[in-house]
Amino acid sequence: MREQDPDTRVSNFAEVPLGYTDEEARAEARRCLGCRTAPCVAACPVAVAIPEFVGQIAGGAFPAAARTIRRANALPAICGRVCPQEDQCEKACLLGKRGQPLAIGHLERFAADRERREGRVEPPARKPECGKRIAVVGSGPAGLTVASELAGAGCAVVVLEALHALGGVLTYGIPEFRLPKAIVKDEIAGLEALGMRFVRNFVVGRTETIDHLLKEDGFDAVFIGTGAGLPSFLGIPGENAVGVYSANEYLTRSNLMKAYRPDAATPILRSPRVVTVGGGNVAMDAARTARRLDTVQSIVVYRRGEAEMPARIEEVRHAKEEGVLLRTLCHPAAILEDEEGFVQGIRCLRVELGDRDASGRRRPVPIPDSAFTIECEIVIVAIGNRPNPLIPDTTPDILVSGRGTIVADPADGRTSRPRVYAGGDIVTGSATVIQAMGAGRAAARSILEDLGQPVQPRM
Ligand SMILES: Cc1cc2nc3c(=O)[nH]c(=O)nc-3n(C[C@H](O)[C@H](O)[C@H](O)COP(=O)(O)OP(=O)(O)OC[C@H]3O[C@@H](n4cnc5c(N)ncnc54)[C@H](O)[C@@H]3O)c2cc1C
Predict the structure, then answer these.
(1) Low-confidence ranges of the chain (pLDDT < 70)
(2) Cys staple from 238: which of 189, 215, 332, 335, with CB 3.0 to 4.6 Å?
(3) What is the dotted CATH code of the domain comprising 230-385?
(4) What is the pTM (predicted TM-score) of this model?
(5) Distance between CA 171 and CA 155 in Å, rounded?
């Protein structure tokens, strides 16, 4: 797919990949082998009918392709952009055994974008009202998926969102240059047509508890999709210095509060030298955002090697093209500050990789006497997020794991509390958009089953 030139894009927040033309999409779609076993479908957490929609694109039936995707995926323009296809459908593609796998993500994005551009997005079918009322807590991909499935099944659905904006990480985390917010808004507006109601600035656990929703407000079931938005920190000296951000804060200021715009009310520090600590998508997003905010030297410090980085390959490539430097096998030991408490640099130790840990990755072992300093004015900590404990702390008898995640059956979203379901990052810890959507879909089915409502086969 054609992309904005790296030298141009570091001075704007517009999307980097430019999308396929009709001809490009059809040519790519024609590469599909149409395997009878369709391993790509089995590798998709929501089982999109991939060969079917790809065949429709190949034949020029673009609106039909979009409709096929929407049968299984309520947010195709989003998933076509941010799903780690290289680890899912495209990894299973048989074309990949001998060359490049089919660009399934690009094709999904093409079909969804074309449908939007032509104003052809049809409101999803909705069954007659069934009299059941469901509260969905959180409007990220998990909550939006549950809400759309249940609203489509005729339930009255209310989505309660703590922030003033909907979409969860899609809106406040993933930058505009990877996922334009106009697309997130459009996809959510499409779901709203199903009749669900959104209530913003409603913090469940503060404004009302889960028990209040069930007992006082009379909801028949509650789904918790509150994500994992609590940033982890390094726990090293100097982490309170001025100029240290969690990636969540840095990205929220930029994405949600538009701090990159000159007219924004929310400030964000700008400086020529920024160090981001971490190796995932979040770290890449922060380092690339810094490049767009006047940073000349944006360095990512990661404690393992590049091959071990959990970030998407495409994100790492884009970051490098944009001049982001990777310092791998580095372990941050302290953040250095001046006498006024402003960040001056970060002290690191070199590491070597030792035995494999529980995650199967080789453990980083600091090398004695290998300390060195990287001078910088901003340090962004992007080493992971945990669930906020607010709902677990205010919901008696809900089972919570040692990691602070809500314990729910991955197959159906049922928790230890009757009529309370959960899915997405609040259950798995930080994961992916499509996994959160898959969990939302599974929970919607069990909610319908438990409420004695018919469950519609989706494929
Ligand atoms: C910067 C960044 C980049 C990422 N990039 C990718 C990527 O490229 N591809 C990918 O697949 N995944 C990516 N991820 C991960 C992905 O975004 C998440 O796995 C996914 O969004 C989880 O969905 P969710 O619905 O469980 O939670 P979230 O998206 O976190 O949504 C939870 C929602 O619940 C709300 N909420 C929280 N507490 C309450 C409360 N008490 N009351 C009411 N509402 C509440 C929050 O405000 C939020 O809107 C990224 C994550 C980050 C942070």
Answers:
(1) 123, 456-459
(2) 335
(3) 3.50.50.60
(4) 0.94
(5) 26
